[in-house]
Amino acid sequence: MTEPKRILVTGGAGFIASHVADQLVAAGHDVAVVDNLSMGKREYVPAAAQFYPYDIKSPETAELIRGWRPQVIVHHAAQMSVQVSVQDPIFDARENILGSLNLLQAAAEAKVEKVIFASTGGAIYGDDAPLPARETDRARPEAPYGIAKLAVEHYLHFYQREHGIIPIALRYANVYGPRQNGMGEAGVVAIFIDKFLAGQQPRINGDGLQTRDFVFVGDIVAANLLALTYPQAGTFNIGTGQETDILTVYLKLQELMGSPLGPVHGPAKPGEQRRSVLDSTLARTELGWQPRVSLAQGLAQTAAAFREAAGR
Ligand SMILES: NC(=O)c1ccc[n+]([C@@H]2O[C@H](COP(=O)([O-])OP(=O)(O)OC[C@H]3O[C@@H](n4cnc5c(N)ncnc54)[C@H](O)[C@@H]3O)[C@@H](O)[C@H]2O)c1
Fold first, then answer.
1. pTM higher than 0.85, yes or no?
2. Can you give the residue ranges of every domain in the chain?
3. What pLDDT is recorded for position 262?
4. 11 lines ligand 1 (CB under 6 A)
């Protein structure tokens, strides 16, 4: 076990970071969560963590950082919809760039040692990147969401040079698992399961042969814990390296949910990326990370957790 640290988790009432916060608490760290509950749920915050219902853009958050002086900030709070970022790039930049800068500026004043940042691997390389994408491939994000994530990665390097904060950017593939929100446009696993639970017909956009790299949230948590003890700066893809098409996910979930509703196709989404998959060799060699949960296991766990949450 590593020495206990004071760790601020932003977005810790949300899907991914609530699981990260759970494991940080379990490992004996002193954890505080900042989340404005725009998407997250209070009950996902671990009971042993201090909770602050603040916006990351607010003076209260900056004040908390200056006063409590966390050693590490695990930064996951974000507006995480690519579609919203395309419709309202200014809103996206306020949340994802200025919100992050508010944290980083206070972090510099509080002499924070390290920031672990939830970046994106699915939306940062651009549609014509070679596959599987590697960290050394040129980042050319198509949407403001990816542009903002890349900008924050650059700011992290500025804060390293200027203030000595160690930056670790984890570029996640398509994360799925318990607590994911199925109400939005992202998170196809959660969206399909919610529909199956409600007895409604899920709709596949287009032919369903578009692919993604689906990584289970438990594996994402493991990457965060490894990043905590990694002594240097780094940018790491966190994905399985396996491409799975949406139709395959549908059929697996239909079976797991015992649903009679076969696949139904709607119109393809204009501009939707056709294929996405990450090469995570660097995370394996540097962090010692590798995905441990297969898609079959992860989908089964997710389906069971959604069922339980719905009381079925
Ligand atoms: N889910 C994925 O597949 C995926 C992939 C790549 C990167 N990411 C990144 O991982 C992080 C977590 O994503 P998630 O899927 O858990 O989403 P989520 O929406 O469940 O979690 C984000 C949390 O941040 C909070 N939040 C949003 N804006 C805030 C603000 N201004 N101030 C304070 N809190 C705020 C929300 O209430 C929510 O609880 C995000 O940064 C996202 O961009 C997610």
1. yes
2. 6-175+216-239+279-287, 177-211+243-278+295-305
3. 97
4. yes
